[in-house]
Amino acid sequence: MNNAIDHSETTEAEILAYESEELFTVSVKDKGVGIFAKIQRDKGLEDERHALLELSKGKLTTDEENHSGEGIFFSSRAADYFTIVSHDLNYISHDGQDNDFLLHRDADKYQEGTSVIMRVALDGKQTMKEIFDEFAMPEEYTFAKTIVPVRLATYEGTSLVSRSQARRLLARVNQFRVAILDFEGVDMVGQAFADEAFRVFAAGHPETELVPVNMTSQVEDMVERALRQRQG
User: 224 and 199 in contact (C-beta within 8 Å)?
Assistant: First the structure.
């Protein structure tokens, strides 16, 4: 609701909350400028999909004086189901950090403004302390670890092959001590992409550890090649 008040550039928002036998659901909907369009405009990004990629990393806000940029990151991991719908994009996260993915909506389902829906299981055992602890370094109370869904950097019909794609994926990642790069849904990457990420970026930002997970054999081969070249 604070995001709707401070960022949506509209004066109206709708809040719904309801409970079933298994789930508690909360939704906030406004008819403003749209969350991804707002980020794209204010941060000078390529398009709304690029804005979604940046949002998923955390520590992103268009109002640094009043917001930390951490709310959506932690909210999406606290919920058993979390979705943001704006214009023709639908970002969905199931079970916290797993299986984040992006859907393109048909033209007849264009969503004006922004709609956020969260569902939490009534018998859930996860606590907010456990979530914060997972993304903080030991003995620290800082947002030090992020998970980057690599598939959000791909465009339909293309693969991750270029250095520019790697730079876009890793923009602002140096703000974290650990960045888990989740390659779920990415079948292949090119040599230039892997080299830029795991040799060039890693050498230039030794304070940030890149941890690739959920790799296909082809992706793993490319990553290992880049790591060997860095070491050699």
Answer: no
The span from the CA of 212 to the CA of 116, in Å, is: 29
pLDDT at 3 over 90: no
148 lies in the same domain as 95:
no
* pTM of the predicted structure, to 2 decimals: 0.79
From residue 98, alpha-carbon distances to 76, 127, 177, 183, 199 in Å are 10, 17, 20, 11, 27
Provide the pLDDT confidence category of residue 96 given band limits of 50, 70 and 90: very low
Task: Select from 134, 169, 200 the last residue of a domain.
Answer: 134
Q: What pLDDT sits at residue 191?
A: 95
Most confident of 96-100, 143-147, 158-162, 173-177: 173-177
Give the domain extent around 35.
1-134
**Cα–Cα distance for residue pair 44/182, rounded to 1 Å:** 25
**Cβ–Cβ under 8 Å, residues 68 and 88:** no
Closest CA to 31 of 49, 43, 51, 14: 14
Helices then strands (H, E): number in the chain?
Answer: 9, 9
Between residues 126 and 13, the one the model is more confident about: 13
